[in-house]
Design brief:
Elements: E1 18-22, H1 25-28, H2 41-47, H3 64-77, E2 82-86, H4 89-92, H5 101-116, E3 120-126, H6 142-158, E4 164-169, H7 171-180, H8 191-215, E5 220-232, H9 238-256, H10 263-266, H11 277-281, E6 287-300, E7 307-310, H12 326-339, E8 345-349, H13 366-384, E9 389-395, E10 414-417, E11 422-425, H14 427-438
Parallel strand pairs: 1-2, 1-9, 2-3, 3-4, 4-5, 5-6, 6-8, 8-9
Antiparallel strand pairs: 6-7, 10-11
Helix pairs in contact: 3-5, 6-8, 7-8, 12-13
The structure holds beta-D-fucopyranose (FCB).
Beta-D-fucopyranose binds next to loops.
């Protein structure tokens, strides 16, 4: 069972430790151009040949836009009392920058539905679906200010239903992975652009926090970062490993705590930073979300970044090819706790892609069950070592559009049959239900 590796007295067994599931708007909603929604950069990216592994898109996805009531009911039936979801910025703000009542109606109904079922929403404002009409996207400093406008409007109109809000999901992905490594929208390959986008995203987060605080004072506001464990391939690769560590972990934390990021990293770009930016980026958080999936091996390489990553550890891997390495989660949390004055932490994503097959109405996702077991134990270990962790969200409620992998990767606790949109809880979901019911 999922909780087999945590002790009887574990903090995770106490009723006030929060368990939830997570999703994001573009990955599940569908309804891509209804009720006044404008196109996002992901709508456009999916139309470009060769970008998405199975040439798919988010036009229908899990059709959550029309099925949200059943989905929320399912979350509660599985025993979860928390749900991390994101709002689609292009649904809420029109091309001319105005609030879109029709889009807002959908989120009002969805959030009310959560509350009615005893499910507390944890809302992310930006999980990568940027309005395509914003010229220059994250390379344009102005986008950070447009984000703050959007954050203020979201809180003004929907704040009564959103007790917990985060500004951004994984800004590393919407900067480095999107502008430097080129795997995500808009798919550029430019190291300096990646670093500039990273700066603008952290600026956006700080401005967004300030704008929301000016609007109301009763919300718990956070930011969600993604971290991975990093191991040098050989001793000679150690400095490359340190550089990746600076890029993927320290940069974001240093920005939050107004410290200087690694000079070796910053020397790879020409970041346009204006006076006052640092204080904005260090706007205090009420909580920090940590997403964790895997460990990567780092080698030095002759490219603009000076490194390359592979998943070639001696460990088991998930269907997407990511090493399973729970110890890395404990290590990162303890390192952060030692080095920074952290606010309360929530594990906002953690999960596994499996080669799930539906057989006789069932999905036996043994590897996913073990994955959760190992990672819950890792969270427990970090708490034992003093880290203030308050909750854990499994990625994901259901199978969905996995970005550049399209529908080829299934991360859900619930299997989705994309031809009928049937939802079928997998063995891991039943495991969660047993654990949460007996807690
Ligand atoms: C994270 C994303 C999430 C999902 C998982 C597998 O990086 O935040 O949307 O794609 O990976």
């Amino acid at each position: 069972m999922i909780a087999d590796k945590i002790s009887a007295s574990s903090r995770l067994r106490q009723a006030d430790f929060e368990f939830g599931v997570a999703t994001s708007s573009f990955q599940i909603e569908g309804a891509s151009r209804v009720d006044g929604k404008q196109a996002s950069i992901w709508d456009e990216f999916c139309r470009q040949p060769g970008r998405i592994l199975d040439s798919s898109h988010g036009d229908v996805a899990c059709d959550h836009y029309h099925r949200y009531e059943d989905d929320i009911r399912l979350i509660r039936e599985l025993g979860f009392e928390h749900y991390r979801l994101s709002l689609a910025w292009p649904r809420l703000i029109t091309e001319s920058g105005r609030w879109n009542e029709k889009g807002a109606d959908f989120y009002r109904r969805l959030l009310e539905c959560c509350h009615a079922h005893g499910v507390t929403p944890n809302v992310t404002l930006y999980h990568w679906d940027l309005p395509a009409s914003l010229q220059g996207a994250w390379l344009n400093r102005d986008t950070a200010y447009r984000f703050a406008d959007y954050a203020a409007m979201a809180v003004k109109h929907l704040g009564d239903l959103m007790p917990r809000v985060s500004t951004l999901n994984e800004p590393w992905c919407s900067s480095i992975l999107s502008y430097d490594l080129g795997y995500h929208a808009p798919g550029h390959n430019d190291r300096a652009e990646g670093l500039q986008a990273a700066h603008h995203l952290m600026l956006a987060s700080g401005l967004g926090l300030q704008a929301m605080r000016a609007e109301r004072s009763d919300q718990s506001l956070g930011l969600v970062l993604n971290f991975e464990a990093l191991q040098a391939r050989t001793e000679q690769d150690q400095s490359a490993r340190d550089l990746v560590h600076a890029e993927r972990i320290r940069f974001w934390m240093d920005r939050l705590f107004n410290r200087d990021p690694s000079p070796a990293l910053m020397a790879q770009g020409r970041v346009d930073e204006q006076s006052g930016d640092r204080a904005i980026m260090a706007e205090p958080l009420d909580w920090l979300g940590v997403n964790y999936y895997t460990r990567s091996m780092v080698g030095a390489a002759d490219n603009p970044r000076g490194y390359e990553l592979t998943n070639e550890g001696e460990t088991e891997r998930t269907h997407i090819g990511w090493d399973i390495h729970p110890q890395g989660l404990t290590d990162i949390l303890v390192e952060l706790h030692q080095d920074y004055p952290l606010p309360p932490i929530y594990i906002t994503e953690n999960g596994a892609a499996c080669d799930d097959v539906l057989e006789a109405g069932r999905v036996n996702d043994e590897l996913r069950r073990r994955y959760f077991q190992g990672h819950l134990a890792a969270v427990d270990q970090a708490i034992e070592q003093g880290v203030d962790i308050r909750g854990y969200y499994a990625w994901s409620l259901m199978d969905n559009f996995e970005w550049a992998y399209g529908y080829t990767q299934r991360f859900g606790l619930v299997y989705v049959d994309y031809t009928t949109q049937a939802r079928i809880p997998k063995a891991s979901a039943m495991d969660w239900q047993r654990f949460l019911r007996t807690r």
